[in-house]
From TrEMBL:
The gene is LOC112465911. Pfam families: DUF1759. InterPro entries: DUF1759 (IPR005312). This is Uncharacterized protein LOC112465911. It comes from the Eukaryota. It comes from Temnothorax curvispinosus.
Length: 616
């Protein structure tokens, strides 16, 4: 049973109040649409926007109260924090405001920009100086509101700069007033916390530029416009003119971003390649750039794709006898999810649902399972019965075989066949299956099993220096113990390490599942890190690491002391004492594994570990 946290009456009241407010926020857009477009008026839209903002203000207040009364250590026990309901409500609220703002603009169009004859001071050369302006005498300058859409940023920026910032008749306070009045939706939310004062105009404008003046994003947007030009279906002067105008508009915008013709061709090549990547790889490429607005080159993309391809190759080693490998090794890695294929009829379904399989008697089914090298307990092709993690056994005799394989007439032979009844279950130490949004699943599995009949082994560990990928203000780095796992497509770090280095985290939801597809939770965040060998600051490897509370419970098996390994006595080990039980703070996956390896393997006698040459 799951323990229910003790919740005080005050917390219950706040959560109930927040639930009502969030329900109102969620229903606001649907209720607005129910009015019908024919019933929309500027007054009604303004009233709905004001009502939505008032509800959101109350929601923020209740959220702040919850943060004060619930300690951070206990927040994970509340579904409100665990499911991030406040963040979801904020997204819905902003989407609602954007939708309403678009209709308000259509219902109450803004006047055209000022002409030269209407400019302040044009009618009279004795107008007051800029310092004498007050809010009551601001000139009637109207600019279409900017709601936070990247495609509208450049137009808004140029208009606001020409009409407001470069207008010598306006004071700093007047400029700040115009700025706050010319924003809506997400753009307005980005500066809402900045008070409307003369001293804050520069701060607010720089905040907008910092968020939306992203050259990399703008270039990608204009290149996308080139790739999505409308097709001319017939010989038509109007369609040809429209095609030409849109193409020239996109190219002109790119040239305004200081992109030469050769740069534009390179940008189009980059866009063409990245749009053909799978969603997971494309997201990894975008995260690699981080907050850097610099336009990457094709050679950088080429190196990234080459590195990722080599890493993925590590996840598909040559096919070997899986059952023999499971009996001889305590630690095994596996990767890849293949399409479901029945070994009997070759159709796309599981074995236990195969009609050919169901028509057989138990003895024939058992023979078919053995012939297909399947686990006789769960029918999986990923492991042998000795390492089966399933908690289920035969419903008839409770022995470690599938109920469909139970043979009543041959008890003795069945008993000899299934030898894993008293075998201790393996302990899964680290398993990760990444499925981001609707992307195809990526399996990254790591298994450490304790079986009494198997010899002790050591996993590949090292001491590495981890820090921020850029020069951080405090220059924080930390030497931690790492586990190298080529069976993991991703690199993972502990939350303890992230907090110790004060790394900035970004949202990157990743589903974590155990061997056999058992759900083990969700990793919500990732962080950019840089890994370096100890004592070699010039050599560094950057990657995006998912953040987890705990990575593995791996504890080295009892083995002889490293000083007795004569075959590595003259080597500098990456982990000076691989037999100690220090915690693992980083699991280095296949995204970096291939970059760390060097030529050279040194083997000892039977029962002794081998040494792999690496940059560490």
């Amino acid at each position: 049973m799951t323990a229910v946290p003790e919740v005080s009456a005050t917390i219950n009241d706040l959560l109930a109040q927040q639930q009502v407010l969030m329900h109102s926020i969620t229903r606001a857009l649907d209720n607005f649409k129910k009015l019908g477009r024919n019933n929309y008026t500027a007054a009604k839209v303004r009233a709905r926007i004001a009502s939505s903002k008032e509800v959101w203000t109350q929601c923020v207040r209740v959220h702040s109260a919850l943060l004060q009364v619930i300690p951070e250590a206990k927040r994970s026990t509340f579904d409100y924090f665990q499911s991030e309901l406040f963040d979801q409500a904020e997204d819905i609220h902003l989407t609602t405001l954007d939708y309403m703002a678009e209709y308000l603009e259509a219902l109450a169009p803004t006047p055209p920009p000022l002409t030269a004859n209407q400019a302040p001071g044009a009618a009279c050369s004795h107008g007051p100086p800029a310092s004498s302006f007050s809010l009551a005498h601001l000139p009637p300058i109207n600019i279409p509101p900017f709601s936070g859409k990247y495609e509208d940023w450049e137009t808004f920026r140029d208009r606001f700069t020409s009409l407001i910032i470069k207008n010598p008749e306006l004071s700093a306070f007047a400029r700040m007033h115009f700025l706050s009045s010319s924003l809506a939706g997400r753009a307005l939310e980005s500066i809402r916390s900045i008070p409307v004062t003369a001293d804050n105009f520069e701060l607010a404008w720089k905040a907008l530029e910092s968020r939306y003046e992203n050259k990399r994003r703008l270039v990608e947007m204009h290149v996308s416009a080139l790739y999505n030009l409308p097709s001319v279906s017939r010989e038509s002067a109007s369609e040809l003119s429209e095609l030409r105008d849109k193409a020239n508009r996109a190219i002109t915008s790119l040239k305004n971003l200081d992109r030469s013709e050769s740069d534009i061709l390179s940008d189009m090549l980059m866009y063409s390649v990245t749009q053909r990547l799978d969603p997971v790889t494309r997201k990894a490429w975008k995260l690699k750039g981080g907050d850097d607005a610099r336009i990457p080159t094709f050679s950088e993309l080429d190196r990234f794709l080459d590195s990722r391809a080599r890493a993925l190759e590590e996840l598909h080693p040559a096919n070997v006898d899986k059952q023999a490998r499971a009996q001889k090794a305590t630690s095994a890695t596996a990767s890849g999810i293949s399409s479901i294929l029945c070994p009997l009829c070759k159709a796309s379904h599981f074995l236990h649902k195969c009609q050919v399989f169901l028509k057989k008697n138990p003895s024939q089914r058992l023979e078919a399972v053995k012939k297909a090298n399947r686990c006789v307990n769960c029918l999986s092709d990923k492991h042998a019965v000795q390492l089966c993690q399933s908690k289920y056994s035969c419903r008839t005799c409770r022995k470690r075989h599938h109920s469909m394989l139970h043979v009543d007439s041959d008890t003795s032979s069945t008993k000899d066949t299934f030898t894993a009844k008293d075998t201790p279950a393996a302990e899964t130490t680290s398993v990760a299956t990444a499925s981001i949004h609707d992307a195809a699943p990526i399996t990254t599995l790591f298994l450490s099993a304790k079986v009494s009949s198997m010899p002790p082994v050591l996993l590949a560990t090292a001491r590495v220096r981890v820090g921020f990928p850029a020069e951080s203000p405090n220059g924080r780095t930390r030497v931690v113990r790492a586990l190298l796992d080529q069976g993991s497509e991703m690199t993972f770090i502990t939350e303890r390490l992230r907090q110790g280095l004060r790394l900035r985290r970004v949202r990157m939801p990743v589903s974590i599942s155990a061997i056999g597809g058992v759900d083990a939770g969700t990793c919500r965040y990732a962080a950019e890190i840089q890994i370096s060998p100890i004592g070699q600051t010039s050599l560094a490897f950057k990657t995006t690491a998912s953040v987890m509370t705990s990575l593995t419970k791996y504890t080295p098996s009892p083995v002889t002391s490293p000083v007795q390994w004569s075959h590595v006595a003259d080597l500098a080990l990456a982990d000076p004492d691989p037999t100690n039980s220090d915690p693992i703070d980083i699991l280095i996956g296949a995204d970096l594994y291939g970059d760390l390896l060097l030529d050279g393997i040194r083997k000892g006698s039977r029962g002794q570990p081998l040494a792999q040459n690496t940059v560490l």
